[in-house]
Give the backbone structure.
Amino acid sequence: MSTTQRSESMNAFFDGFVHSGTMLKEFIDQFDNALRKKVELETTADFNSSNQTIPCSSAFCIEKQFQAVYTSAKFKEVQKEVWGMILCNCILISKEGSISTYDILDEITTDDDHVKSVKYTVYFNEEEVDVKCTCALFEMRGIVCRHALNVF
């Protein structure tokens, strides 16, 4: 994580519990409260995920597999990636042994509603069944990106 991401994560964790004028003793008490709240929110999310199923939005078998292993919140993110595959164009660039390299052209909509084409590179190791994408969504968010799904 970048320094900014860590800082934002900590700010979100303490939001509503401490401020710049909080004394040390109060900070320790509020840290305890923040930790309890985080556990409570995670427990509620786990309960909701196990008691409700978000329906699949496509006929892709891989979406059904993700539905079974992700929480509801993560599954919603995965669904966006599944539908995002439609906007991707996959081109095999090279194959050396068991490693294939693909360029994926993805159509990205900017904040001002312009569409631009962005190129990502996906490396697929068939022997080790390992995939890496230059967008690094899996490393940052824990979900397989549309670019890797397109290669699959």
